[in-house]
């Protein structure tokens, strides 16, 4: 495997320019509810899923190598050690992998499996990488010409091998760290966080997307099974996001999800809602990775210019720890993520996303908002 010879994108953008491209986020999975019986067009996610059938770290390395060798369009695979970050391996010493593809002026950050028991982010991103590396159709060509993609299929290789949400510190404490809550002032306890944060400051993405899993969930008001939840880690209209970049991210992240909702609604097997916790709370966390991106966190002096970027996340139903993936649902669970990414990225590249009505965010099914779940507790919706 060879490291990309492209220099990291160091260009700084104005808030107005950033409002033309956006996305990435991170969130804790919902607690699993009672098992749901999936729609006939989406196989049931009930039942145990053998972890032997789930992509592991060795599989990831092999798949990335294959994608690089068979690429028609310059897909590069490398480790963070090759990229030159000061910290470059996981807590247990595994190499941290990135794949890049595209020659466009704007960098895009795509990330999966920051939680080890949420496997389909990795598989979804490998599928997207295959298309970016080999598909010569007009849509995929446009994406390569518009963007340079920085893809991290498996952010948390140690947790993935252990089939747990966290990584485990190797300092003798055996402390478990949620990598999705480890970018923040006084945090960065795990080496994975240090490594990927430094790489983020090298890339300066225009926007980012994070792929997660959640517990089994039913749609508010209908009781229908939800297959995909659409989320933003700093709630639109909430205590924080309207004050970031003059409100540009508050608008763009809504537009991104409105576009995804409209396009995926055409697929008969996808049922979407907005990501909420506790039944009716929007998340507004500042301690998450994608939240830190939107807030322009400067850790250890690596981001003195205060680069920030908007971000959204997708939540697929089921996870391996709860035994709620359902082997028969695997194909469509991955397919809905791939379709969501393809529609979002193409919509961003063509400008369709930026023309969406952000107010239609309220049309995406959700429970009436009663408050905001923050790092320090709940803030009532009437704040």
TrEMBL record:
Instruction: List, alphabetically, the PANTHER family matched.
Output: INACTIVE METALLOCARBOXYPEPTIDASE ECM14, PROTEASE FAMILY M14 CARBOXYPEPTIDASE A,B
Look up the domain of life of the source. Answer: Bacteria
Q: Does the keyword Signal apply?
A: yes
Q: Tell whether Transmembrane is among the UniProt keywords.
A: no
Q: What is this protein called?
A: Tat (Twin-arginine translocation) pathway signal sequence
* Gene source species: Agromyces mariniharenae
What Gene Ontology terms describe what this protein does at the molecular function level?
Answer: metallocarboxypeptidase activity; zinc ion binding
For this record, an example GO cellular component is: extracellular space
Gene3D superfamilies linked to this entry: Zn peptidases
Q: Which GO terms describe its biological process?
A: proteolysis
Q: What cofactors does this protein use?
A: Zn(2+)
Q: Where is the signal peptide?
A: 1-27
UniProt lists the family membership as follows: Belongs to the peptidase M14 family.
Principal location listed in the UniProt entry: secreted
Keyword list, A-Z: Glycoprotein, Hydrolase, Protease, Secreted, Signal, Virulence
Q: Which InterPro entries match?
A: Peptidase_M14 (IPR000834), TAT_signal (IPR006311)
* Record's subcellular location: Secreted
Looking at the record, the residues that make up the Peptidase M14 domain are 53-383
